[in-house]
Amino acid sequence: IVCEQPNNTFSKVKYSFVKNTFLTKAFRKFTKKRYLSYIKALDKIMNNEEKFIIQIVDNFYLVEHVVDFLKKRKIRTNCYIQFFYHSYPPFFDNQKANYFFESIDELVLLTYKSYLAHKEYYTALPTKVSILHNGIDNKKFFKIENSTKDQLKEQFDVKDKKIFVWCSQDRPKKGLHIILEAWKNISIKYNNVELWIIGCEPKQEQEGVKFLGRIPNEDIALYLQSADCYLFSSLCQEGFPLSLTEALHSGCYCIASNVGGVSEVVQNGRFGKLIEAPHFIANWEDAIIEFIEQPLNFDSLPENLYTTDSWNLGMNEIIEKAKSRLD
Fold it and tell me: How far is residue 244's CA from residue 168's CA, in Å, rounded to a whole number?
């Protein structure tokens, strides 16, 4: 792994650390060689005899510098570059994209829908493509028995209430303002419901809403397992949202915006309710009321779907195919 030195490292993993001192920052700014420290760190672990699979994650501009370095070392043909893109929409315009896609050997996307978006947007897409869904820890996020759920609700003092959860950073594109507006009418119609907001600081006090602030990742599972319904109100083109995946595995009834790759996560409504026009408050009100009064029936998420184990299998398969192409 080529990176800045982290607080914790993985055992049995070889690192080449990127220097990020005041002097290296000043040098990069003065020379405009933004990625020089990465190239130097990469150079320390490369040689001319072996073959390498190089995986670059999300940094489009780093690719050009890596390719130039490999060509100068005359080892480009010994290397297979996989670019992992963890968003959804195409990044470059057509003019810049052609050089980028010709520079890499494989583009790895989060969803097939993202591939279709790329295929339709670009006049040419000259690279191989693979799909690798995100995975979550299903040993932590899993559906619990109803009796255990009742006990958790009792601990949270919400035993006789239907609990809704919204969990994200508080940015306009995440749609919290839409949910809070919809909740005004929900709280008037029903007194046995409560909305938990996780991940942002308290806003103006509102009936039936609890702002829980930031919760440690290791504790979020308890809140999702206690909840009845998860609201995913994103207003942007999501890649493969982990929070929604965690809620599905925790047994929540999920109501989600149909944006980006979300419909692929819930398999076009097989595992949850999709809001086709998430910018309209009334659509959220209707979906919430539907859940309270007459919820739809969805298939349970298969235990091994979208898990770290399935991700590892998918990653290993992608690597093995790359090795065969280098042989």
Answer: 10
